[in-house]
Protein 1
Amino acid sequence: MKFLITPDSYKGSMSAQEAAEVMESAIHKVLPEARCEILPMADGGEGTADCLRMCEAGEIVQCVVEDPLGKKIDSEFVWFQEQKKAVIEVAKACGIMLIRPEEKNPMEASSYGVGELINHAISMGCRQLILTLGGTVTNDGGCGMLSALGAKLTNGEGQEIERGGRGLMQIKNMDLSAPRQKMKDIEVIVLYDVKSPLLGPGGATRVFGAQKGATEEMLEELEQGMENYAARMNDAAGRKISDLAGAGAAGGIGCALYGICDAKYISGSQYLIESMNIEEKIKECDYVLTGEGSMDAQSLEGKVPVGIARIAKKYGKPVIAFVGMSKGESNQHYESGITAIFCILRKNDSIESILDSAEKNLEFAVENFARVIKMQGKQKV
């Protein structure tokens, strides 16, 4: 019996690699003769660069950039020398994990460090740039990134706007000639995990602002600022880019990239599925085990479990998803090809305790799934 184990990370508790190893251990505890192949996955957010590095043998390049609040930090991206290709996770410069929870403030948090990472890759002769959007603590429309790349974003007096979401309302003039010049000969591929537009109820601010530290008052101010930014960016681009799929990803960095280069936007999970030859591996297995921190409506927009399930459905392979929590109706998830969803949480507790016990809870759930398989007499030697 062969299991393909291909989870995403469980944010705040386990990387995709750690989760996959826990699943494999739990399976072997009950079915020691089972064959397991582990392929940690990502959806365009954190962990994407590592997945690509492992399957294509890239190297890690370290550099110093500014974190979301302007502090100098050690960061990194993945580099493929032969192809002159860089894979940059924007979260490495403006990720939610880079600052303490009490420091979260989208009015101040900036994506400036993302532009610094891109500049470093360009200095190495980058010809292809893959940017993974996800996991950010910023809601600045990518203005910080644009500034680091040389864009001139000024107010009515010709002064540079403030960093962070606070500067969005201040923009009166936008000169994108410098970043466009830098990016003109580079093939840019943008991997996103959500298809959100920039504005409105399903946009960057309304959907993700609160988890980045925004109060209700901040949300109103940020949305108004984003509306101003969208109008200026649409004018600068010569077309309405703020409504495009992925424009709201990473606090609006997606929109900024639409404005400065002819980027190709691809679902992160779909890109990795193709790069890692997942379909062929699904054909050869008996069960697919996957998972993520939370399964909800957004999971249908390109998250790992659903992306995997849609392929497995073509071959009639059962897909078992182990999740930290499951929200809303699950019928659409089942229709996508997921056979069963197991919530690994065993008791109500503090968030800290839940995160600390995630590995044990995952192991418990997978072990019990394996016991059901064994009881049904489906084990194959």
Protein 2
Amino acid sequence: MRLIMFGTGPFAVPTFESLLESDHEVLALVTRPIIDSGRRRKTSENPTRDTGQQAGLTILDPSNVNEDDVVTQLAMMKADLFVVCDYGQILSSECLAAAKLGGINLHGSLLPKYRGAAPINWAIYHGEPTTGITIIHMTPKLDGGPCLVKVETEIHQQETTETIEPRLAQLGVKPVLDSINMLAEWDGISVIGEKQDRKLATKAPRLKKSDGNIDWNRSTHQIVNQIRAFQPWPGSYTNWKSNKLKQPMRLIVHRARLIDEDEIAELRSQSDSDLQLAPAAEFKPGQVVVNRDQLVIQTGQGKLAIEQIQPAGKRSMPIADFLRGKPPEIGDWMTA
């Protein structure tokens, strides 16, 4: 099969590498253009481009892949199929028609759940026990085409987006190759794949910075899931308000866990006499409950122990290091 790869982010790299090593002919890579921010970066913003350059491929990076001249250029390559993964633009029907068999897309969820740009993040955020990958035969409607292959996997309790994403990227390699073989034998007329049930569709919109703001009225489980979901970006953050601070201090919470009343009772028994723990009923969501050995915050349902934190302008640190400075006082507020 004559293929054109569409990809930008790291999620696309394992699939791209497998195509380059396969018996298929990869004609070109289509990727997002480089945006010069004027700052030096330690890591590449486009690892798929790096892979294409190393392979000596023709690389196209249009700002709009659906423009007439781009579609014409793609059609002239006479590709059998487009392979799309972590690209960043929606291909129009005219663009998809530039390949004989249209396109397939490797998507990081079990469609029709979590259609959109951030499926892994939102699956963790909502506390899903499982996720997976889906290969769809593409239509102009976002993530709306028939499903060719699905593979499911468990979301482990402590996993974050950073740990699940590379695992799903590897999980998708064989299904992409299997889907290409399915389409190679397709007559172009008969029904192929499984139609998505629109009634089961959920959205996974692109993340915004404001998504990381912690709402302490939510339950401990929900907040812990948020912290796991929004790593590395936008992160999950709160503002520490105290009478001893001139202005609120932004705190990024990198890791946290549920802490039960038995653990808090143990802290009470082991702590110095100056550690004051008021009855739980007196605390409101967002208030500091414990500030010695642990930093425990009351939530809307339960309590949350912060394990890794990053004060504004400083490095990320274990909570013990943070508490050795001037820690929040019991009763201080963590707010939006």
Protein 3
Amino acid sequence: MNILVVRTDKLGDFITALPAIYALKHHNRAHHITVCVSALNEELAHSCDFIDRVVVDSGGTILQLAKDLKECKIDISFTLFSNTRVALAQALAQIPLRVAPATKMAQFLYTKRVKQRRSQVKMAEFEYNLKLIKSYFKDMDLNYPKPILSFDKQQIKKIYTEFTTSYNITKKVVAIHPGSGGSNDANLSEKEYVALVSQIRSLNRFETVMIFGPDEDNLRARYEELLNGQNIVFYSSKNGIVEFAKLIASFEYFISTSTGTYHLASAVGVKTITFFAPSLFASHRRWKAIGTLSDQVAYTLPKSINSIVESNFQN
């Protein structure tokens, strides 16, 4: 069976789809799994051995997207997050069975609509994704490996050795990503991040690395100014999301707001300390990561920096 999974939004959103995609592939190894993703997630999708084909929605016309999908000869599609664009493209591609949540006007372009009421946040986003697919494959096993993203161990070791050698790192790494990518307004202030870095460094047990995305050069420059003279490692990810995933897989902790890199860190098995907004819609209950739950520490802001350090790094 040729199966399509559609999730064309941001990095973290796509990562919440991985357990469902994995479960589909392992429900029947004969299944051919195609994903439709945004250009941002193309490289990561190609790296997953449980994904057979990647279709990129690059923002062209709906007719072009429909043509790309039709060429895949899909038997059934699961749209984990719908909008009119992807719904119409699938209808035009004449996919015979199209499954999606029963939300928004676009739901009427699907052949099977599943009531989930995700706004009630009765479970996490990735759990809703799994349940949507199980609505059709009722005997499907929902278990998946943790970490779900695995890479060649020798390659990971090589990347991490090169990194630690370049920056003269001899201790376990605590990575701090102060950016949000525009996906979350709940974040520490600059002053709070500076205090957090200073307190972790004062323990003299970890190397603190400030992490920045490829488009966060201005943010990096700001923190280099704020932390001038504190011997902090500053690292910008410039070599693609997969190379970045392989690097952070060796880190001890990844600290950030609830954004795509948090989900990536959990997906490769790193312990996460994450900041969430005081609302159900933006809570850890909804955006719980797909990694091991005991490795996820979630804080609803505002939160004392002292309590964060004492709770996680003093022992």
Protein 4
Amino acid sequence: MSMQGTAEDARRAAQEFREVEGKIRDQVGRMMVGQRDVIDGVLAALFAGGHVLLEGVPGLGKTMLVRSLGDAVHLAFSRIQFTPDMMPADIRGTQVLVETEGGGHELRFQEGPLVANLVLADEINRATPKTQSALLEAMQERQITVGKETRKLPEPYCVMATQNPVEQEGTYPLPEAQLDRFLFKLVVGYPAEAEYHEILDRTTGSETVRIEPVSDAAEILRLREVVRSVPVPETTKTHAVRLVVATQPGGEWSPDLVTESVALGSSPRGAQALLLAGKVQALRAGRFAVSCEDVRSVAHAVLRHRVILNFQGQSDGLTPDDVVNAVLAHVPAPGDAA
């Protein structure tokens, strides 16, 4: 649907989006307990065409969430458990020598786990930089290169990576360039006390939870076009740009906290991510235009991994979320009191 479509077309598109997303969320919710913000973030990334970095201690259901999403959308799913000895060929695939019917031999490409629609990259920070670079090519270019041959990856293509924030031995921190490729960084927290009871009931009883496929790749790709077609008013676009500029030390809109405590702020990819995620938020609310509040509501997920603290910020015990809070307070939405 084009931006020039009628108001009725826009209303129908927003309604269809909400219905499809609601069905997927219901299926994922049959397996996952709580974690509403994380589920919303993962679904938003899928519809916006972005990748997700999930951070949390082991045992919180990060792997289960991504696997459940793959089942609900009937996508080709693969899981990579990263280790320090893993090589790029282990995830991309490689040429193997096979015997032909006539007794001869030929080289054939054997696909690696990167060739799927939904890739779960478990403990991504355990991979060496060489292997991380192979994943980076797949994330950014939607392709893999083996020798002199380049292969396009299937669409939709989405990498959902996990990392453990507390275990540092044997890990390789992701470089800023790769962090920037993730649309969102979502922090998976501990469940509430009441949720533990439901988790135990679902996981220690005799009943097996089954997830039914309620969507497919073609529908996701079509709804991605709907997301892209949501118009962004000039005031909202300006606000998104100002939020990104405010994360950059010495920027025109930067609060003092940023200038004093931030080494690197967000790149233009942050502004792109704010608008794409804001479009999803607008559709969720049944609207076909992005508001400044839509952009602000996704600011933490979009910007927290794009803000790198300097020594001063680290020694003061600040977190990237503290910086985003300061930016949101310092750059009010148009119409708000300064």
